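Two entries, shown back to back:
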Amino acid sequence: MTIPRPHRDDVLLAVASVCAGLVLWGLGVYSNAGRHLLPDWAALVPLLTLGTLELVRRSHPRTALFIGTLAIVADQLTVGNLASVLIFTDLMYAAVVYGSPALARRLPVTTGLLTVAVTIGAVAWLRTPQALLIGVVTGIVSFGPALTGATLRNHREAAVAARLRAEQTALLAEMDRAQAVTAERARMARELHDMVANHLSAIAIHSTAALSIDRADTSREALGVIRENSVQGLAEMRRLIGLLRDAGAEQEAVAMPSLDGLEALLGQARTNGSASGLEFVLHDERPPGRPAAAPVELAAYRIVQESLTNALKHAVPGTVTVRVARADGRLSVAVDSPYGDRPGPRAPGSGAGLIGMRERAELLGGEFTAGRSGRVWRVRATLPAEEKAVEA
């Protein structure tokens, strides 16, 4: 097991805890003063062990909690040290805050059941009101820190989820803005055709007439029409060019969803899927600096997004792998999610998501497949990556 460099706060916490425990031991302040099964110095062994575990409370919370539990049990066989108990409560808290999602879910439940069991057992055994204190102490040492850690972790995950949702909302808003700009540019293009092209057509017709009919009055009349249409056409061109320049400057700030936003997309999926035992991994094998055409990137982004949504609704606990690659002028998207009998209720599905992904791929001239392969649900999409592949 590789042990990374301890966090500075963990080092300070370990040193302060051990020093406080040594001071209490030196003053003869014991938590189990009447228990002399072992020499008094034996209480230092659990203290030093627990203090050392504080250094790995972030990097290896599960291991720290396991060894710390053994150490606190051993501490009960000695005269005891209050600092050892306090260090153990911090290890329990750290295991929930920094441990895996599964560990964070199990510890509050486990410690809560343990507290209830110890309370009932102590009352049944001692049959005195003071036996309730044993359950209270057990809850303070185990259930209290676990519940506090779970509350903090839930708040953190909720904050991260809110931030990711805000990022996704911003991406969607930018996409809507890009579509609005595109529609406005198309409107100006139509206006350019309807007005300026009309002037140019008039100029072409009258110039042909002036060249074909060799009469002074006809030539003078044609030149008048040509001049009038030239002036009007030039004014329209200047007006429309000004509008296009403004739209172009606005377009530079627009950011449509693309494959560069997959990491943020998977970050949200990780927060939402942590409670279901799902992990999400991204393998981006595209060559750097070579984005695909914007419609292709948008379609690939939406295919991944819908696949992750389906995984959150239907996949069993495991790892969802997303892989994007580009080779030979084709952009490939692959999403593998664990398939099987999922415990608990399933979210109903209409199948519209698969239909939508297939339509996105086929509209771009690509290919799409989705189906079960053993215990894996596979989604595959192959799209043309070049701009010419998506032209109408």
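entry 2 starts here
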Amino acid sequence: MSYAVKEMFLTLQGEGVNAGSRAVFVRFAGCNLWSGRERDRAAAVCRFCDTDFVGIDGVGGGRFADADALAASVADHWGDGRDGRFVVLTGGEPMLQIDDAVVDTLHAAGFRIAVESNGTLPAHPRIDWVCISPKAGSVVVQRRGDELKLVWPQAGMDPVALEEWNFAHCLIQPLDDANAAANQAAAIALVMARPRWRLSLQTHKLLGLR
């Protein structure tokens, strides 16, 4: 199958447990919780997304004919050397497109694979690092993994109930919108009250990285 990628770039992972790690980001086009178009936002399940995942016209993006072509582009973005190769598959919703061929080909190229997903689709079992960011109003089927990242606040989402899910790390990330300061305070208060959680900041935004 072919793969639709909005953009691909080399950067530092800006958030979560892997923050600060050199990584190639592959942003797959498309999502099952929002079309990505502003006219549809009010009716979407996820209404606060600030990511452009529509189309394949971003830097490094395009339609890749097969997994070999995709992996070759990821390797080109990484550059020389195979030490520490790390790729983050994100979106949109990457699990709409990730399949055996993508995982196997990236592994063959020496990459450790992380995925950032909304959890409404099962994560591929051979992905090395599974990060799930649940959205209120959606049905999350992937309730186990390495990292649970809850954007906060979210009406209709209960952090106490999420603590029962099987994740090695539980992170609270303040919602980045017009109420950013209040959201940061709410996130800090939640972590102080519920020590199962840790605070995660979007350091790439603070550093001016993509």
